Amino acid sequence: MLLRYALLSLALLLPALAHAQEAASFDAYAAGGTRSDIGEDVAMDADGNVYVTGSFEGTAAFGGLSLTAADDDPSNDWQDVFVVKYDASGTALWARRAGTGVFNDFAEGLAVGPDGSVYVAGYFTGIATWDGGGNPDVELTTRNDFDGFLAKYDADGDLQWVAQAGGPEQDTGRGVAVAPDGAVYFAGGYAGTALFGTSTTLTSAGSSDAFLAKYDADGNLLWVRSGGGAESDGAWDVDTDLDGNAFVVGTFRGVALWDGSPLQSRGLSDISVVAYTPGGDVGWVQQIGANGNDYGRGIAATRQPGAALYVTGSFENTILVNQDVLASTGFSDVVVARIDPTDGDLTWGVRGGGAGFDIGNDVALAPLRAGAPRYEIYVTGYVDGNGTFSKGTRARAYTSHGGVDGFVTVLRDRPGSANPAAYAQIVTLGGTNADRGYGVGTADLGETTAGVALTGAFRDQASIGPETLTSAGSNDVYVARYVFRPRSVQEPSEEIASAPFAAGAEAPARLVLGAPAPNPFRGATTVTLALPSAQPVRAEVVDLLGRRVTLLHDGALGAGTHALVWDAEAAPPGVYLVRVTTAQGTQTQRVTRLP
User: Fold this and answer.
1) How far apart are CA 375 and CA 369, in angstroms?
2) DSSP class of residue 332?
3) pLDDT for position 323
């Protein structure tokens, strides 16, 4: 059953941006059945239509349309792929399924071309059938384990072609993007030997490697490139700029090679970002990471004046993004980083999360004004418990509904300026069970209108702003559509502020961590901590790799000013970070221990 809700009003979602928007609407749709259904990716076209892909079990309803998996036996949990198109009023225009009926099949990426064509990337195993709509069905058989696939539908949902990529081992399709000229980029991972097109074979350097393949609009393979090393590497998402250059984000371990000099991961795994020319040459390779597990998940490139590239994923411990020291407050945190697409230089970074496992899954850009080099950066993913989003000494808290929640955070950026990411809105989506955000997409809807679409999965009851959604079964898909008119733009401030759940709510007082004195120092140094209220405080000293050197405090402190002293007689000379976490967020200060 499809349920339609007014998800969030403008005043509830984006009060700090109300001055820049003259009208807005925000609706949401729940889709699925009595079993597990998940929305993985979403896109919006210039007419405001919304496209969603993901997986479903049994029978799932999308408005007045329904799909039934090839194996509808309730004793099995086999997943099939769905693709659905909604018009601007929320009516489902068509829905298609693909799958084997005896194994799991997954959709991971979705993109819409300039002519309204729809591309879906994923992977399957066994003998899978793609519903052709008004065209014949297509049947493919994997070469052994999972194979990647890239499927194209026209604007009416009629299947045009399906490209298969893989070999005898496990191969996955993850991301897809359409260049302005209609060329299609397909990214994922493969192991061993994999066949692309009819005669192009790649052989991985190790456990698994990343691939990027380029096709024309008719499904003909133009070229495919590989990157990786002796360990497990893969690509997760891809986007293109106005000139058709492709940018790929993923993860690598150990020593990996794309072209030129190899990269060495700084920890267990690092985020990789690789730029390719339209002809398939590597322009540059960048890495983000430290001594933990760091994963790349989503990427978005600007197609307006003022070139910029944004990536999201997760990181552990402490990483450095240009001059921004990002310190995880839990097992892993969300990372959002801006990169210069011309040379791959890191510009700034923002972190988000709490004490649990937190990750950014997707990122998309909406220009604030037609032709203006200012952007709203929409990031979605999920967070486990309460936490903060922060940059530098500025941090704002969000509150979880319980368990794992999906989230949407909105950053405003002007790529040509030195001051990044203003007005961070943070909205959590969920209830007391596990709820997750997976996909976000944007579109220019005209001279003065832009749109944003979101998808993910929720379970049982989930609070989304003032509304409560109830799933029909174990997990249901949510699809949200937000339309606004950014006719005028004020200069962004440096402040990062959250979106409260009630209009006009005041921001909580900020944590103030004073500069260490003396600094540099030899015997001991002291930092001051000003708290607006009594609360738990964890203060520690870490090295530049994020490893704890000493614990200064872990427990409750009252409102007021406190002195934290680090007597560093046993510490070797070098640079360290004093890291303090409170209800207002996390702040760090550099200190230098002299010989």
Assistant:
1) 8
2) B
3) 85
- Span 341-382, pLDDT tens digits: 999 999 999 999 999 999 999 999 986 655 556 778 899 999
Only one residue has tokens 């000229």, namely: 181
pTM over 0.85: no
* Integer-rounded Cα radius of gyration of the chain: 24
Instruction: For residues 307 and 241, give the distance between their C-alpha atoms in angstroms, rounded to a whole number.
Output: 8
Token pair in block for residue 372: 């203006």
Distance, in Å, from the CA atom of 384 to the CA atom of 396, rounded to the nearest integer, reads 16
Mind listing the pLDDT tens digit for each residue in 137-170? 999 999 988 999 999 999 999 999 999 999 999 9
Q: How far apart are the C-alpha atoms of 5 and 535, rounded to whole Å?
A: 37
Cβ atoms of 165 and 186 closer than 8 Å: yes
Q: How many helices (H) and strands (E) does the chain have?
A: 1, 50
Contacts of 6 (CB under 8 A, 6+ apart): 26, 27, 28, 467
pLDDT of 456 higher than 80: yes
Rounded to whole angstroms, the Cα distance separating 227 from 258 reads 4
pLDDT category at 491 given cuts 50, 70, 90 is very low
Token pair for 327? 């310190």
Q: Which residues contact 268 (CB under 8 A, 6 or more apart)?
A: 253, 291, 292, 293
Question: From CA 378, how far away is CA 316, in angstroms rounded?
Answer: 22
Closest listed residue to residue 394, CA positions, set 374, 373, 370, 411: 411
Q: Which single residue is written with the structure tokens 């009595």? A: 34
Q: Nearest-5° angle of CA 60, CA 66, CA 71? A: 60
Tell me: pLDDT of 547 over 80.
no
- For the chain, how many residues are written? 595
C-alpha 191/C-alpha 168 separation (Å) is: 8
pLDDT at 171 exceeding the cut of 50: yes
Per-residue pLDDT of 410-438, as tens digits, reads: 887 876 665 555 455 777 887 788 899 99
The torsion angles phi and psi of 10, rounded to 5 degrees, stand at -60, -40
